[in-house]
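Replying to the earlier thread about multi-chain prediction with a worked example.

Input:
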Amino acid sequence: MAETADVLVLHGIAMRFGAVVALAGVSFAVRRGEICGLIGPNGSGKTSLFNCISGFYRPQAGSVHLDGRPVGALPRHRMAALGIGRTFQNLALFRSMSVRDNILTGAHPLGRSGFLANALALPAAARDERAARQSLETVLDLLDLRAVAALPVGALPFGTAKRVEIARALIARPKLLLLDEPACGLNHSEVDDLCTLLLRIRGEFALSILLVEHHMSLVMRLCDHVVALAAGTCIADGTPAQVQRNPDVIRAYLGATPADARAA
Amino acid sequence: MSRLAAVGVAVLLIAPAFVLSGYHLFQTTMLAVYALAILGLDLVTGTTGQVSLGHGAFYAIGAYVTAILMASFNWPYWATLPVAGAVCAALGFAIGLPALRLRGPYLALVTLALAAAVPQILRAKALETWTGGAQGIVLSGPEVPALLPLSADQFLYLFVLAIAALLFLAAHLLLRGRIRRAMAAIRDHPLAAEAAGIDVAAIKTRAFAISALFTGIAGSLGALVVQFVAPDSFEVMLSIALFVGLVVGGTGSLPGAVAGAGFVLFVPNLSELVSKSAPGVVYGVLLVAALFVMPSGAAGALRRLVASRRRARPDTA
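Result:
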């Protein structure tokens, strides 16, 4: 299939919970290879939109296309195999497992072997395991997790645990990586490291990243493209500098602009 | 070294056939049967996190498939095992489908209802031609192949041991790679498991099926060992006993299943020795004591012991 210029295209996504409109027709596109930031005040619909893209919610209207292919109606466990990897706002690691096993679990969609092949130790099972462990090596190095690979995830500091989550998504070689507030709960130097890390990931894995983030300086530093949501609609879509100057964005965040004050 | 250990374990497992006799050999044979039944339960409850209080039902159905095929259709004993396994796997898969919508205590209750229903179905008039109703079915034990210099009890033990060993090996292989990770991921965090590309519904129903297969074959072997099946042997308490065995033995561990089987098999007799009038109380006290001393089961206690040994002697780690 010919590669489209946009890896992800959202068109008119609408989502309502009872009387509450979470998303009122959101459309934008993420271009191949870019880091796109999704910003907006609390309750503006960022996480709802995330869940629509990763198949966790079914939008009531609108479409999601990945590489030109509609993915909105597919079961959510198919998303990883299609190339959408994600992390969660609060850590969602498998707490009974080691770091290594957490990451290897992310390689599940790369394998084919099932219960029978594994219980009978058929070659397919060994092949899957070998492939998963090879990919594991790359990811362990890239995310600097080799030293903690054997530890249970419960023993990790928060920032390291977040890297494990990213590693688990990366091992499946996604085309699009969705990060839900990756800088949340990190200190200053950890945010700097995250920035470097995400740029390196984008380079080595040739993927696009869509991140929801409150940490404005991270967004401005890292992103090629920023989309701002407010009250379930898209109020700005452009470069970080354009979005930062957009009066609607300033109003959404600060409540009023100097221009508003003059007009009043 | 590991080959030597394997030979040692094999000798240890085969030895009872020649060292023990009569009731003791019978009990050791049942130990292998219960270990297999608990291993089955562990696959779905321990590894995948779906609590089943109804695995006695699969044990009963496995036992009855063997008994009916032998008594009514003159099948050789060994040929009944795959059928019992297949029937229970199909049934487990079928139970697994509604189980997808049920979580935690709700699933436990539904499986408990299954355990309560099966003995009544086995007593049903309509099925009496095959099941023998409340009277059950008396079986003749497997015949010792002509060339083997073994008694019937010895042969039975070794046959059960061989089947159990094969299935333990299969479980070991299953629980070392991607399927174990998928099952454990579902238990730990179903949403994250889905995001990681795991088809939660498919894994859960298959886990239920394979779990029922293991426990069903255990029931089938149990019927060959006891040579008698009746609804009274498969009441709800059997399911509870298997669950107790799983918890006391420790979830997610093959040796734990054996330890749990030991508890299920020997502790009731022990309780009877301590107090003839209230063995249930003694059993309860011993159960609480076991869980107090080993909160994560015998398997967990063993893991901690090994870990502390390693720490004490880092040069051998």
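The longest helix of chain B spans residues 200-226.

Feel free to reuse this layout for your own posts.
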